[in-house]
């Protein structure tokens, strides 16, 4: 069955509401600009939450804008920098599914088209409103005959299109939920990476904090193998907000505790701790999901570093009085989680592999015994998988292998790699 993906633009494909941003540009020199901004934002929220009809909200916002074509050019440049992070990193999905991805928005083609076409989305698959201009290029209105300018416009449009297949809706607003309510789409995903509207979340089939999560749930190709929102980052001790904000922005599920408790450590993929709150070697042995520790201060002794290494857990630490550690630690942790980089770890061998496009990256951590690399490559050879790049580093305890392979292989390969004798940890990175 054909699959279609109906995606909203404002606060979904992009991090912001475009008309609100256009107001910031067009009204910046007016003395009452702040009052007008607030009015426009209120009209936006009232419509998105279902408190005001979309047609009333749209008319009121356009009337307040006082914008022209030059303002639109500035807006487009701004919006290109505000594409939602999880959409941006999954550009390849849009290229692969170009015939089936539709942007359906109550926004305007004049600013939507230049932004989304850079992500391989076809112009003919963009459904939105259009502005009307006077001879001087000033926006004086919009096409009221376009169904997307009207209340329930997305429902009207999809009825007219009569798509035959399995249809998924992704958006943050009430007009997106109306597609599900009408019975026209199979499932509605409330997209909350940028804003979470309670009235929409309560009615959604699924809440998706990122586009990665949507792709993961539906077993679709994606840039990262496992959504960050599913990875718990346990925070114990005195950890600065600057460091945590970087992890939150990346999408990690932050969890604060007073002490390192076994239950929470065993659920965590990342641990942030300080010098006064560090796990025991015994706790690390039982923390099967833990991949990386960011210690804001020095690790307490070689025994802990060795225990982490033996269990395939990398540690990055930094002296507590060093002002750069609020930036240093999260950047090192993210470089490991995203790319497999171990540079400046205190317990893993150093490896800084380059990013490879159009390939899958596999990480294999094993005891440092002879013959493991040969066994890894034997699995690839048996399944006729081409190796794009391979990197091996060791220390006295472990071997650390990163292999980049061509896409398009049976997932049985992953099970075979995990089953190699002396394997400590294995994961598909992307």
Automatic annotation (TrEMBL):
Give any GO molecular function from the UniProt entry: L-phosphoserine phosphatase activity
Requisite cofactors: Mg(2+)
**Top-level EC class as recorded in UniProt:** hydrolase
Q: Name one GO cellular component term.
A: cytoplasm
Q: Which UniProt keywords apply?
A: Amino-acid biosynthesis, Hydrolase, Magnesium, Metal-binding, Serine biosynthesis
Q: Might you name a Gene Ontology BP term for this protein?
A: L-serine biosynthetic process
Record domain ACT: where: 361-430
Q: Which domain of life is it from?
A: Bacteria
UniProt cross-references to Gene3D superfamilies, sorted A to Z: 3.30.70.260, HAD superfamily/HAD-like, NAD(P)-binding Rossmann-like Domain, Phosphoserine phosphatase, domain 2
Please give the catalytic activity noted in the UniProt record: O-phospho-D-serine + H2O = D-serine + phosphate; O-phospho-L-serine + H2O = L-serine + phosphate
Write down the SUPFAM superfamilies for this protein, in alphabetical order.
ACT-like, Formate/glycerate dehydrogenase catalytic domain-like, HAD-like
Involved pathway(s): Amino-acid biosynthesis; L-serine biosynthesis; L-serine from 3-phospho-D-glycerate: step 3/3
Q: Which Enzyme Commission number(s) are listed?
A: 3.1.3.3
Q: What is this protein called?
A: phosphoserine phosphatase
Please give the organism: Mucilaginibacter yixingensis
